[in-house]
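ok trying this again, last paste got cut off
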Amino acid sequence: MAFKENFKPFLSNLLEAIVNQAMEDGVITPEESLLLSQIEVDIRSFEKEVAKSIEEEGGIPEALGKDSFKDRLIASVKQLALEDGVISKDEEAIIAKLEESFSE
């Protein structure tokens, strides 16, 4: 899978889908804003990891594959959502959208 041709558009579309989910009710809550920021940071970090791997190793190792990234991203978002002890409906909707986006 070529990163620029397949992964990069997927990651951009993923971020757009998550922002659209957060905006569905017309309001981005502070909790949603935190999750969106974390998701963007994780996506950009992943892009850098993949680009470095392609440059140094000539490809994307299994450890940086889509399933591995999905698991890491969802775990990171759930951990952040649980920091206050409760996952709100808005946070739950974002997590569900993440999971749905990876299964498409």
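PB: full thing came through this time. The chain has a mean pLDDT of 85.
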